[in-house]
Design a protein that fits this description.
CATH class of the largest domain: Alpha Beta
Distance between the termini: 66 Å
Number of strands: 15
Protein name: Sensor histidine kinase KdpD
Number of domains: 2
Structural class: alpha/beta
Strand content: 15-25%
GO molecular function: phosphorelay sensor kinase activity
Strand order of the largest sheet: 5-4-8-9-3-10
GO cellular component, one term: cytoplasm
Shape: elongated
CATH topology of the largest domain: Rossmann fold
Keywords: Kinase, Transferase, Two-component regulatory system
């Protein structure tokens, strides 16, 4: 077996050239059972003959969790003298030297004691994975970097310890440990999460039911995103595999575009879906000042709805819309009824008919509007 020199000067074995596999157990809040489930799976794999060790276990005084850790080999923590105190951290070098097949590591978002080789525990995990060792780890959804501002708005708590989104993107598997808000609050009242003196304070703050409902949705949605990405990666090109709804509004220089945008925003709100807006401009046609201002108005309105505005240049409007729909994995399209005359539709066909042919798995919402004499692009 090959060896490698660590930053601390000790040698550790490299299991293989392959990167270890990473499985993350994620939950909406402390106490849902992430660590317990991780330990449970660790025991099952040990029973199957897999070499499993515990790299870092945080029980937070929970008896059931501590009992579940019994029977698994635990790598001793590294002791760090600091200002007359002895602090402890996960001993990454000891894990590398032990070189198990699988290591269980709690609290992925943890910040290490200052002065360590790496600032964050997830960075230690990356070193372990690079050595070819599989890792099971745990984290709560509020620690995900991209959700930091949203979690602060929901709960009023600014989360200091965060994990980059790429860590979840690169994980081989993500498992949500899900319980209802009511069940979690009951566990809290029974003293299964925090000590007695912290229970009421927690119920009045972070563990309010409305907070837990929102955090639970975030956790479930995050896993749905990962499932969708994996499904798309394994789906033949040109085929859709969407779990989430996504709404696309097609605007033009017709005055009814504002109405379409508002209708699309309501639809997106009902579906709890992101909204996209596309404006397709013919390549050889210049917009008048009035038309340009109107499109700017549509773009501003789209941003007010927290949507994404897309400018597209093409002489084939239907193909352009279809291309945008495929790129952004759109499931719902909102368009206005055709402004062409009956004879023009018979001669050239309508935008709706063409989109139906081009997009087989997308719902079209055709919004009736009054005819006018403006020019549509």
């Amino acid at each position: 077996m090959n060896t490698k020199l660590s930053n601390s000067g000790s040698y550790y074995p490299i299991r293989s050239a392959r990167r270890g596999k990473h499985k993350i157990f994620i939950g909406m809040a402390p106490g849902v059972g992430k660590t317990y489930r991780m330990l449970e799976e660790g025991h099952a794999l040990k029973h199957e003959g897999i070499d499993v060790v515990v790299g870092l276990l945080e029980t937070h005084g929970r008896k059931e969790t501590a009992q579940k850790g019994q029977g698994l080999e635990i790598i001793p923590r590294k002791e760090i003298p600091r200002s007359g105190l002895t602090l402890t951290e996960m001993d990454t070098d000891a894990i590398l030297a032990r070189s198990p097949q699988l290591v269980l590591i709690d609290e992925l978002a943890h910040t290490n004691v200052p002065g360590q080789e790496r600032e964050k525990r997830y960075q230690d995990v990356e070193i372990i994975l690079a050595a070819g060792i599989d890792v099971y780890s745990t984290m709560n959804i509020q620690h995900l970097e991209s959700l930091n501002d949203l979690v602060a708005r929901i709960t009023g708590v600014i989360v200091r310890e965060r994990v980059p989104d790429r860590i979840l993107d690169e994980a081989n598997q993500i498992v949500v440990i899900d319980v209802t808000p009511e069940t979690l609050q009951e566990r809290l009242r029974e003293g299964k999460i925090y000590a007695q003196q912290k229970i009421q304070q927690s119920l009045d703050n972070f563990f309010q039911r409305r907070n837990l409902i929102a955090l639970r949705e975030l956790a479930l949605r995050e896993v749905a995103d990962n499932i969708e990405e994996d499904a798309i990666a394994s789906t033949p090109a040109g085929q859709f595999c969407n779990i989430h709804e996504r709404v696309l509004v097609c605007v033009s220089t017709y005055p009814n575009s504002v109405q379409l945008l508002r209708r699309g925003a309501r639809l997106a709100n009902y579906m709890n879906a992101p909204i996209f807006t596309v404006f397709v401009k013919e390549k050889d046609r210049f917009l008048t000042k009035e038309e340009s201002l109107y499109i700017e108005t549509c773009e501003k309105l789209c941003k007010e709805f927290e949507g994404t505005f897309i400018h597209f240049s093409s002489n084939d409007v239907a193909s352009a819309i279809a291309e945008v729909a495929k790129q952004y994995r759109i499931t719902q399209i909102v368009i206005g009824e055709s402004q062409r005359t009956r004879w023009q539709i018979l001669w050239k066909g309508s935008l709706t008919q063409t989109l139906v042919r081009l997009l087989k798995n997308v719902d079209l919402h055709i919004i009736a509007t009054e005819k006018n004499n403006s020019t549509q692009l």
